[in-house]
Amino acid sequence: MSTGNLDFEQFRVFLEKACGILLGENKQYLVSSRLNKLMEQQGIKTLGELVQRIQTQPRGGLREMVVDAMTTNETLWFRDTYPFEVLKNKVLPEAIRANPNQRLRIWSAACSSGQEPYSLSMSIDEFERSNMGQLKMGVQIVATDLSGTMLNNCKTGEYDSLAIGRGLSADRLQRYFDPKGPGRWVVKAPIKSRVEFRSFNLLDSYASLGKFDIVFCRNVLIYFSAEVKKDILMRIHSTLKPGGYLFLGASEALNGLPDHYQMVQCNPGIIYQAK
Q1: In the predicted model, what is the mean pLDDT of residues 240-253?
Q2: Residues 6+ apart with CB under 8 A from 69
Q3: Where, residue-wise, is CATH 3.40.50.150 in the chain?
Q4: 51-86, pLDDT tens digit by residue?
Q5: Whole-angstrom distance, CA of residue 122 vs CA of residue 78
Q6: Class for the domain spanning 5-71
């Protein structure tokens, strides 16, 4: 693959318009590693040729395949640990008190390979075991991602030993997974049934999502420009119920929206509450 400066710049512009991701100027290696195989299969030699092909055949499926390849990421179970402890010890009890007769709704935005929404579902189960009868109306977890390939994988709930080894304890593996062949496991039905997977672009309208008590948008905003990041945070605010909570990644911070969110120190970690 040829990644000349002009071709790479054209691709950067295309990708940001398509899904909001802002590629750094030194990320040619990432593009090459993600797209080499696809471009070879399509008989495309340069990034400029790739962008031109997408523009002349917008409905040919190539655009979706490219975005899919550039947004696919593996993640961890119970990443950073503290968000899931804060969820169980602080946020869920508060949400139940605020809406005792309503089903709680949680959004896992950019859910990638599914570890986050399934970790949330396991956390809900652990909360219910310790607080019998408190979640009378149940919990719905809406998990969204741009990648159709990842969503299809998520829906199966199947993971290999490499994925299982990324942060899942032996106790949780035994309690929440069933073995499925050598070196493979599948999420148990009660955990899967709480999660609804949907295809969604964070740049699109949020109207169809409805309102949420809790939003997890972790380790996503780092890929966007400051302008796009602020726009997404404003849109997320529109989906949160008053007093609802937003969880960001450990290296992410919410700056410049004091009229919309209040920072909550949790020791460890910081979350944000919608005003």
Answers
A1: 95
A2: 34, 35, 38
A3: 82-274
A4: 999 988 866 689 888 988 888 777 899 999 999 999
A5: 10
A6: mainly alpha
